[in-house]
Amino acid sequence: MKKIILIFLITFLSINCYSQIIFEKGYFINDKNERIDCLIKNMEWKNNPIKFRYKLLENSDIKTASIHNVKEFGIDSIEKYLRAKVKIDRSGSNISQMSSNRNPIFEEEQLFLKVLVEGYASLYQYKEKNLIRYYFKILDSDIKQLVHKFFLFNNDEVNENNLFRQQLFLNLKSKDISKDEIENIEYKKDELVEIFVKYNESKNAGYFNFEKKQKKSIFHLNINPGLNYSNSTLQDFINETIYDNFDNELTYSLGIEAEFILPFHKNKWAIILQPTYQFYRAEKLFEVEHFEDNYKEKVKIDYNSIELPIGIRHYFHLNNHSKIFLNTTFIYDFNMNSSILIDPTLKFYSEKELKIDPVPNFAIGLGYNYNEKLSLELRYQTKQQLFNKIRDWSAYYNTMSLILGYKLF
Prior knowledge:
Helix content is 11%, strand content 55%. It contains four helices and 26 strands. The chain has helices spanning 2-19, 163-171, 179-184, 189-202; strands at residues 23-30, 35-41, 51-55, 63-66, 70-75, 79-89, 106-118, 121-128, 131-138, 144-146, 149-153, 157-161, 208-209, 218-236, 241-243, 249-261, 269-273, 276-290, 293-317, 322-335, 339-344, 352-355, 361-370, 374-381, 384-385, 393-407.
């Protein structure tokens, strides 16, 4: 099992490195005010960048542009960054970094600001590790920081400078924005975006909200026939008998998969639920030594169940038509009158029937999806104990599956 998990991890890391090189349609404006349409590597920046990679055409060489020669760049309707020389207060929010000065300590820097709302009144964000600052601009005025600062009062009491509320009150005057809204607003992206959108709408001015996202999850339903390659072992602890080396069996399964694509991180994460019917049958004759008797026992395994894998999936986009995915699932198993029958050849030894009551287990899967319609997955399940309540016996079931997927909708 360790080898299989290692193979999956190596494959995952290889896919991750390869799949991150995804270029999306975008543009940038250079210092000569020339707009260059290109393909930009979407890094989904957590912190505001100082450079980015691009190529002019799909098969062109990859180049790098930076804040030193680019005034603006964006990925169409997804993200936009604007170069600006602004004053920034870098006061920390940790007590060890706080001072007793309630006023911001500004330094002038050239930054790429992320555009959140663009219009009559524009809102920007700058993020660097734990530092988050918001900026605004009205029409063609200078870009200014919305001031919010933690400081120490009487050396040990943490206080806040919420000057940004006064800035909003003075600059976003509108009958549609109440004084209470301004007084209660927090220095948080969602709340600031909401009030800037409301102000632009009150002005009947055109604007673009880059933070407007699809709120609903995307739901897919897939049919999943599969092939299972399985084997098992059985052990009697009281008589110290091991029944192993059952032949590997190739069986089939049939499932329905419900996939809920989550509405963030570019739809790369999903929750999956996959009820699946599977069966496993094996039969073998074993030589047994019990006290002074040597005889044979025929062991027959008849295992039928409805598996219910529940887990998460992550997609790695290769291009517009292909993506690779990795998922991990926790599997509940609903047994369907399954048992293991042990039939001795000596008449004075009685037949034993052991009822299967499987313990939940885990699985990892690696797959390929083509054109959002067809998929193929290799899935490995961890060793499963088939006896949850029987203490004198153990039975382990191992399986690896090749699962075909076809999207119904």
